[in-house]
Design a protein that fits this description.
The protein contains six helices and ten strands, in the order αααββββββαβαβαββ. The protein is α+β, with helices and mostly antiparallel strands. The protein has two domains: 41 residues; 138 residues, no CATH class.
């Protein structure tokens, strides 16, 4: 009899506990629902994040951004303004190179040791001329250009120079300026035998950078 009473008590306690949990559960739902409807309610009007990003992107002038970055890059690589030639002058320069490592032939035979100084014009032939100019020299250089010639701009607007000449125009950077021994503009660079011939030309045009 005592054993039965203990079992019955445990069952009753378990059932009561379950009922109590369920009552609390439904009470919390009812309370939550009641809280949701108390006072004024408003629709959420937050914009879709993707739509907002798209709208902002459409307002960006990508052409302007590209030009700004391009001009910044040009300013970073461009050398300082070179002086303008005041007299006609021609000089010869050898564009010496130095082997950065041992140079071997296809059989592994050493041709030149690292550090060997050489003149590349002994083996290479420039089949074109290089004109180094400022923007003010565009009208002067245009009738002189041959199809294979190269134009390098020291100072001026690169896009306008390309449009006016109808060909590629490049920026004069420090490595080229030092390698080709360019000192003044305009200069015409060509090959004479195994040396560079650098012709500085006086055009009579004024240059504020003098």
């Amino acid at each position: 009899m005592i054993k039965f009473t203990i079992i019955f008590t445990k069952i009753f306690t378990t059932i009561f506990t379950i009922i109590f949990i369920w009552i609390n559960f439904f009470s919390s739902i009812a309370f939550t629902q009641e809280r949701l409807v108390v006072g004024k309610t408003y629709d959420i009007k937050e914009r879709n994040a993707l739509e907002e990003i798209k709208e902002r992107a459409e307002k960006i002038d990508m052409k302007k951004v590209y030009l700004e970055r391009k001009n910044k890059w040009i300013d970073n690589v461009r050398v300082s303004p070179l002086p303008t030639a005041t007299v006609d002058k021609t000089r010869a320069e050898i564009p010496w190179g130095v082997a950065p490592k041992d140079i071997v032939d296809k059989h592994g035979k050493l041709l030149y040791q690292k550090g060997f100084k050489f003149n590349p014009l002994k083996w290479l032939k420039m089949t074109f001329r290089v004109f180094v100019i400022n923007e003010e020299h565009l009208d002067w250089v245009k009738p002189q250009l041959k199809p294979m010639d190269r134009v390098i701009l020291n100072m001026g607007n690169l896009a306008q120079a390309r449009e006016k000449l109808g060909r590629d125009v490049f920026i004069l950077d420090e490595p080229f300026q030092q390698k080709m021994r360019v000192e003044k503009v305009p200069s015409i660079i060509s090959q004479e035998n195994e040396a560079l011939q650098i012709q500085e030309v006086f055009t009579g045009l004024n240059n504020e950078n003098n």
